[in-house]
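job 3f2a | input accepted
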Amino acid sequence: MRSGRVLMTHRMAALLCALTVGAAAVGAASNGFTSTWKSPEAGPMNFAGRKVAAIAIVGDESLRMSAEEALAREISARGPKAEAAYRLIPREELADKARAKAWCDRVGIEGVVVMRILSVDTQKVYSTAVFGSGYYSNVWDYYGYGWATVYPIGEARKETTIAVETLLFDVASEKPIWAGVSRTTNPKNVATFMKDLTRNIVKELQKEGLARKGSR
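job 3f2a | predicted structure (216 res):
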């Protein structure tokens, strides 16, 4: 029994390592996945007709509900019977894993897709310097000019990057089957961004053979 727990711990460590390394190695894309992982033990799986819970771990209630509805729609369009978690689990019991599990067991949930915002990072970004001044042609002219003008060249703008992790779990084994980290920069609208992301999530699951093509 102990060896089984150790093996599971190693698997999860490998998963987290793969996601972290992949996210660091690949540059941010618009609403794109910087890293994905699929369990080596996951063979062809068919969730068609099976109940799947769509869960968004987000503090904003309205954003959570709209994201879960969008995710449930995308999943249901490809065979499974997806339910938004807010329709299954009372709000006051969401953070209690035992109660949430009980609610999912009650309705026969067999798969869980969880979205969670990992980070929201806002920083100032400055425009690129243009080397057009005559001061750059001579080391000492540049030296004097540089100390006389100690400020960023160009106007600063704020750049916001949102990172979201998504995992698909098989409820029977309680093991993760697939995971991905996505990043987007400067989304115009967070709610729209989350809805668009749900489509990309299901497309990734489809590519991995974990969701079949829908009729649209």
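job 3f2a | The first strand starts at residue 32 and ends at 38.
job 3f2a | closed
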